[in-house]
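Students often ask why we bother predicting the structure of a whole assembly rather than each chain alone. The short answer is interfaces. A chain on its own may look different once its partners are present, and contacts between molecules only exist in the joint model. In this exercise we take two input lines together and write out one structure for the complete complex. Read the inputs first and try to guess which parts will touch.
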Amino acid sequence: GIQVEQSPPDLILQEGANSTLRCNFSDSVNNLQWFHQNPWGQLINLFYIPSGTKQNGRLSATTVATERYSLLYISSSQTTDSGVYFCAVGTGGFKTIFGAGTRLFVKA
Amino acid sequence: NAGVTQTPKFQVLKTGQSMTLQCAQDMNHNSMYWYRQDPGMGLRLIYYSASEGTTDKGEVPNGYNVSRLNKREFSLRLESAAPSQTSVYFCASIRLAGSSYEQYFGPGTRLTVT
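Now the answer. The structure tokens for the assembled complex follow.
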């Protein structure tokens, strides 16, 4: 089955810094989403981005489907950005595969 | 508009006990999923329901059963709980978008099996 790898596994930032999180996948996908899991465990949709580029405030994401990767950019990080960021992909049908996540800690 | 709701939020079971986790959505979506999340890991799909009246196995279905009661509700049952089923369980509702989809998650149920 499809493999999803996220990097880095852990990231510590000073408040105000920028960062790039990466999601590589081993096969063609027709669905890709980025989620943020906050420290209370809640999963929040960030982007639905099977291809192209989207921006939402300080966050933006780019998926290059032909090269099988997606990037999540966080600019001017804040302590509330802390948590785990997951990439999840689908290859057709309804099954979804999650990556193991990038754990982000933003220091004040 | 409550989105996706799950009950209970927390549960402790003894090995061999049974229980049902409830999930409901008010977004009029056809499809719903059940996932489990173990510490330090991503989510793994247990079962999904593409539409009312249909259910299918996901990645880790053993030890679980599901019921799609109606369009709004999708329940997950543990018939004989085992310590390996200690996990956080998330329900998701799916908005179809052409040939693809977006997932909206409930708050989760934290289950401990002793």
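Check your guess against this: The mean pLDDT of chain B is 93.
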